[in-house]
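Below is how a single chain appears once it has passed through the pipeline. First comes the sequence as given, then the structure the pipeline wrote out for it. We keep one example in the README because the format questions we get most often are answered faster by looking than by reading.
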Amino acid sequence: MMGSLPEKGGDGDALYDYLKREHRLKEQLENTRLLYVGATRAVKQLRLLANVVRRDENSDDMKTPSENSLLHSLWPQIKDQLEIVEASNNTASTEYGVSETAQTLSRLASDWHHPDFQQGQLLASYRGHEYQGNNVPELELDIQAYSATAQAQCLKSLLLSIAELGSQYWQQAEPQALDALLKHHLQLSGLQAHTDNAITIQQRLKAVLACQQGQWLLDNRHSSARSNWQLNERISVTNKIETQQHLIDRSFVVDDQCWLIQVDTQTVTANQQTAEPNKVHLIAAANALSQLNSRPVKVAVYFAASEPPMLVELENC
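Resulting structure:
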């Protein structure tokens, strides 16, 4: 705690005197630093300009600058090298006492008007093809196709997210928790809740969780259970070793057999024929996995959008 300041005319306080000296020293050091930074920026020549005062009108001696000035620290070294430039008492004026700046102003003629602007012609030579009038082609967007794709992607990401905690967890969880997860994935897919798409996704999700094969697919208690597994295979292409990636929706080990399963959330008919487009991809991934372990590999497609949802196993050949 610091006491009150001493009375005027009284003895100074040692603590306050010390603080004043420290503050004065700090100011001097800061001024020295500032002067050093400014002076060292010179490349070839350094000229310092300062305002100094004579001791009296008839003397050439200059007063020593104030201790608080930047010039004070340099004064002993430069006081004999000063180039004195006397201030001029003459003020520039015109013959009629009117400033020169005012004489440069001009005024437009009373009949002046802005030149006509030719709309769309100034940059015509720089433009490409322009459509005139109403002949502008509109962007054709198949809303129905986009909606179906977004719906399928949303359901797929939702199912794979459920697989992280396991189907058994979500069967026992509160309905509000599943609704919150559904709403989150709808937002990620650009879909709104309480729409036909959201209702369809919710119905298909409930059907998958009620399906025995769906529960088995999303069970996280399987050995080596993975979602969106990226299986890398090193192959030789034109005497070069390259990496080929196989992305598998669900993979796990059951009864000492490796399962590679693709989740189809768009096709409503589940059979061998509709599963055929996934066969080439799954067989290639199965062959790559066979090189890494000795377990037999099974491949299948799970149709989450069919009624009821169904797992179709493919021949691994």
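The mean pLDDT is 82.

See the next section for the split statistics.
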